Amino acid sequence: MKTSEIIGLQDGASPSLPEGAQGGTEVPLIGEAAQRAVEEQKRAEDTGAGVDQCAEPTAVMLSTLFQELGGCDRTLSVPLERFGYFLGRWIYLMDAADDLEDDLQEGAFNPFVSRFGLSDKKRADGGRAYRSLRGV
Description:
Blueprint (H helix, E strand, L loop, with lengths): L2 H5 L20 H19 L4 H20 L3 H33 L4 H5 L12 H7 L2
Helix pairs in contact: 2-3, 3-4
């Protein structure tokens, strides 16, 4: 699943708050962070980046979102920003692990394929690497 699918953002779109929500309807900072995440994710996948580099766009996007939730109160915004960052990494990594088998079959990009030396043609290990990654 791509970052744009996770956040429901189409190319060039800005996320909106529900009608009647306080603060207007557009959230430009979050929209910009989401758009940057989509662009950075595409760049990481196009260049065959490693696991950490691939997880970074989602992590940064969620850190921005959570920091905004804290507003001007640094006692809230700093821990929320850190929480958002690590939550974003976790979401990306869990999604990549969950998609691994399908990505192998479809030949789609998945950072775990190169990290663990997997390929749809090289399943000689009987799927042990995949199962160990999934914890089974």
